[in-house]
Specification:
Bound molecules: threonylcarbamoyladenylate, magnesium ion
CATH class of the largest domain: Alpha Beta
Largest sheet: 11 strands, mixed
CATH architecture of the largest domain: Alpha-Beta Complex
Number of domains: 2
């Protein structure tokens, strides 16, 4: 892997055009660049440049069986990379009209111009249009789709700020575009779109900011109970989003039995004295996701930041309490469960 003196460019209003131009220049040269989106920061490469896509896997240390999401800047680009029948095209157009630009990724039959490297050899490609103005400007200016997984090393916490990207990938990439803190905070919702018998079938592969209740307006939402085969949801690995510190996700407070020799940090939902896990233990550190109010969108925005803070605090163990299993809370609990998967298995 090449090493770089990683440059960070702020895409604030005065510097916007310059930052966009610098990113596009690197992408045209076949380099990978960290880019802001409304969910998490992405590690972008020209999706039609196979050697650039290969660099994404190398920089992330990502196994090749985990496919990438392709980002577009214009609606018409979907049909340039996806093979849509008129019927499926109608459903896709409805989804696009309702949710794009935004945090919804569609898994659709691919065209030949999208290589097996991007899709891990599958006949489908995952595509989305980000709502972040900087990401969209870069997609439009480049004029080609951008393959971009989250800009973290494989299996680790997704970055929601340029600073977090620098910690994950500094020295490995030439450029990070700083577009501010991500305002959704968890990765996009992923659905595989199928025609179905009566209504379109939307198979929920990853919970995210676009929730089931929203999707039901367009089609029948099908939640696979258990992922049976890797091919059905590649990348939806049991262990993911993990801090270096062991993390335990306890569904019930009784499950927490502290060891007096260890220090503990709590990832608390509300942080309030009256509820939650705050009174269970004399915690060494507490990070609150939604102080006081328990607002789920706020908790989503703070989730990966708070996980990083606890990871860096020096505690021996992180304990995470569940948030309300509603709306984007479904996605938050999903990420916490995966973050804790390795510790549960050990
Ligand atoms: O919000 C997001 O989606 C962020 C930003 C950067 O756009 N990206 C992101 O990418 O979360 P990543 O690589 O961390 O997750 C992509 C996941 C894969 O792990 C896999 O589960 C799913 O997307 N995926 C990609 N292509 C697929 C396909 N053809 N079929 C099924 N799942 C696919
Ligand atoms: Mg990821």
């Amino acid at each position: 892997m090449s090493t770089f003196d990683t440059e960070i460019l702020y895409a604030d209003p005065e510097e916007f055009d310059g930052a966009v131009a610098a990113a596009v220049e690197q992408l045209r040269a076949g380099e990978v660049v960290a880019l802001p989106t409304e969910t998490v920061y992405g590690l972008g490469a020209n999706a039609l440049d196979e050697s650039a896509v290969a660099k994404v896997f190398e920089v992330k240390e990502r196994p090749s069986f985990d496919p990438l999401i392709v980002h577009v800047g214009r609606n018409e680009q979907v049909r340039e990379i996806c093979d849509l029948s008129p019927e499926l095209g109608d459903v896709v157009d409805q989804l696009i009209a309702a949710f794009w630009p935004g945090a919804l990724t569609l898994v659709l039959p691919k065209k030949d111009n999208i290589s097996d490297l991007v899709t891990s050899g599958q006949p489908t490609v995952a595509v989305r249009m980000s709502g972040h103005p900087v990401m969209r400007a870069i997609c439009c200016e480049l004029g080609q789709p951008i393959a971009a997984p989250s800009a973290n090393r494989f299996g680790r916490i997704s970055p929601t700020s340029a600073n977090a990207v620098e910690k994950e990938l500094g020295g490995r990439i030439p450029l990070i575009i700083d577009g501010g803190a991500c305002n959704a905070g968890v990765e996009s919702t992923i659905i595989r779109v199928e025609l179905g018998e009566k209504r379109p079938e939307l198979h929920l592969l990853r919970a995210g900011p676009v929730v089931k209740e929203d999707l039901q307006k367009i089609g029948k939402v099908i939640r696979p109970k258990k992922v049976r085969k890797l091919e059905e949801a590649p990348g939806q690995l049991e262990s993911h989003y993990a801090p270096a510190t062991p993390l335990y996700f306890f569904d019930k407070p009784e499950d927490f039995v502290p060891d007096p020799n260890l220090s503990y940090g709590l990832l608390s939902y509300r942080g309030s004295e009256k509820e939650g896990y705050i009174n269970l233990h004399d915690w060494d550190v507490v990070e609150e996701l939604s102080p006081g109010k328990g607002k789920l969108p706020e908790a989503a925005v703070r989730l990966f930041y708070a996980m990083r803070q606890l990871d860096e605090s020096g505690v021996d163990v992180i304990v995470a309490e569940p948030v309300a299993e509603a709306g984007v809370g479904v996605a938050i609990n999903d990420r916490l469960r995966r973050a804790g998967a390795k510790t549960r298995m050990a």
